[in-house]
Amino acid sequence: MNIENQLTISAKKQLIGTIRIPGDKSISHRSIMLSGLASTPVVVKNFLFAADCCSTISCMQALGVQVEKQASGDLHIQGNGFYGLQEPKDILDAGNSGTTLRLLTGILACQPFFSVITGDASLRKRPMGRVVKPLSMMGCQMVGRQETRYIPLAIKPGENIRGIQYNMPVASAQVKSAILLAGLFAAETTVVTEPYLSRDHTERMLETFGVPIKRDGLSVSLEGVTELTAPAVIEVPGDISSAAFWLVAGSIMPDSQLTLENVGINPTRTGILDVLKEMGANISLINERLSGTEPIADLTIKSAQLQGVTIEGEIIPRLIDEIPILAVAALFAKGRTVIRGAEELRVKETDRLRAVTSELTKMGAKIEETPDGLIIDGPQKLEFAVCDSHDDHRMAMSLAIAGLAGCGVEINNPDCVRISYPDFFTVLDKVSL
Ligand code: S3P
């Protein structure tokens, strides 16, 4: 295996082993942002040192927060209090990370200083209007490219921030979180209502920082605060979105048996488990426990013949990042898999509906791309092909699993896995026989 700009993954027979799943990306981002608004030090254990979370580290450092990796591998954060962020001397760079960009915009728009935030070529194409609209209703002022629908975004000092009641048109944890974080600085109550429940890590972590959160069905509300009370330690669970690649690979490759340790099983993230079980996967949860306010477990997977399934409705936000790897699962399943209501995939790191279709088609797959999803009839026979990651980490990992379980693949630009799972290919090498 040579990792440069191209990587060849050979077909393998089976997967055997135990994998410790790296820290949750969403929770890692939130741990630095909230700790950076507190006044006492926080140690974050199992922090995900991947490119996206490092973008959040450097933005928070530019805002005057001390963030250091300790020899133990823990992250040490020392903020300057709820009103202690400092004006950044230069443009903030969110890199490839939508979570850094959108959540931080909610915080920046309420600070008494000017800031500018941008990101890489992919992030510059991703919609910001969904965050700018509610923040503007709260009294925040910002201007960006194309009538403030895209970054770079210049954010004016915020004053007199108002709480709002906002009905979100799309279920998005990033938008919900941006509004809730701005709501911390507002005089009145902030209420956000989603069409479907998206991941609730912000709400859970805010509670850990002493902020009362009210939940009522699909609505969540909070009052403004003047300080955050930080916990001394935050333990980040393993990322179920990273575990997903092994859940699918272990299911579709014959005679496989994998144990995944320390996986977050927050119900707003476990759509992948529900769907794979419905498809007939042999997955067990053992050792269920709590990591702070987040439930975790170890997962065991044994090979199984999967069946096609329909994926739509409220489950979509609960597995939004897992759809590329579920498309791979569908290719190995018997019968038709239909994915609907997943148009959000078109505005991720790349247009994932298009990328999944075009790249797996190169492997000989027959996939129907619809405006909001995919239709896949299985099982299908794959062939070796040269495919492109579209510089999207989840595409690179999905293609790798398709090649591993199929007839091999050569992936152009595979190093984008550094965004969420830097050791992915090393682990793949270790567990595949
Ligand atoms: C995330 C929310 C999701 C997800 C992304 C991480 C988060 O995005 O796709 O990878 O950390 O809040 P949306 O909220 O835009 O759907």
Task: Give the biggest beta sheet.
Answer: 4 strands, mixed
CATH architecture of the largest domain: Alpha-beta prism
Derived from helix and strand composition plus strand pairing, the structural class reads: alpha/beta
- What is the CATH third-level topology name of the largest domain? UDP-n-acetylglucosamine1-carboxyvinyl-transferase, Chain
Mean pLDDT: 97
- CATH class identity of the largest domain: Alpha Beta
Q: What Rg, in angstroms, do the CA atoms define?
A: 21 Å
Shape: globular
User: What small-molecule ligands were found?
Assistant: shikimate-3-phosphate
Let me know the number of strands. Answer: 23
Spatially, the strands of the biggest sheet line up as 2-15-17-16
CATH superfamily of the largest domain: Enolpyruvate transferase domain
Beta-strand percentage?
Answer: 15-25%
Q: Figure out the total of helices.
A: 13
Number of domains: 2
* Stretches with pLDDT under 50, minimum 5 residues: none
- First-last Cα distance: 14 Å
Helix content: 25-40%
Describe the structure.
Helix 1 packs parallel to helix 3 and helix 4 packs parallel to helix 6. It is globular and about 60 Å long. The relative contact order is 0.14. The protein contains 13 helices and 23 strands. The chain has two domains: 213 residues, Alpha-beta prism (UDP-n-acetylglucosamine1-carboxyvinyl-transferase, Chain), CATH 3.65.10.10; 204 residues, Alpha-beta prism (UDP-n-acetylglucosamine1-carboxyvinyl-transferase, Chain). Strand 10, helix 6 and strand 11 form a beta-alpha-beta unit. It has 433 residues and is of the alpha/beta class. It has a four-stranded mixed beta sheet. The two termini are 14 Å apart. The model has no long low-confidence stretch (mean pLDDT 97). The site of shikimate-3-phosphate has 11 residues, from helix 6.
